[in-house]
Amino acid sequence: MAAGTGWLAAGETPVAAPAGPAAAPPAAAPPAPVPSPAPVALMNQLGFLPGASKWAVLPAASGEHFEVRRTDTGMVVLKGDATAAALWAPSGDQVRLADLSAVQAPGRYELRWSAPTTSQQQPAARQTFTIHPKAYEALVDASLKAFYFNRAGTALLPQHAGPWARPAGHPDNRVLVHASAASPGRPAGTVISSPKGWYDAGDYNKYIVNSGISTYTLLAAWEHFPAFFKARGVGIPETGNGIPDVLNEALWNLDWMLTMQDPADGGVYHKLTDLRFDGMQLPHLSKAERYVVQKSTAGTLDFAAVMAVASRVMAKFEAQRPGLSARMLVASRSAWQWAQAHPDVVYRQPADVVTGEYGDGKLSDEHAWAAAELYITTRDEQYLGALRSLAPAMGVPGWGDVNGLAWISLAHHRAHLTPAAEQLGIERHVTDLARSLTARWQASAWRLSIVSEDFVWGSNAVALNQAMVLLQGYRLTGDDRQLAAAQALLDYVLGRNPMALAMVTGQGTRSPLHPHHRISEGDGVAAPVPGFIVAGPNPGRDDAKDCPVSYASAAPAKAYLDHVCSYASNEVAINWNAPLVYVATALQVLTPGQPAHTRRSSRQATTPTPP
Question: Is 516 in the active site?
Answer without folding.
Answer: yes
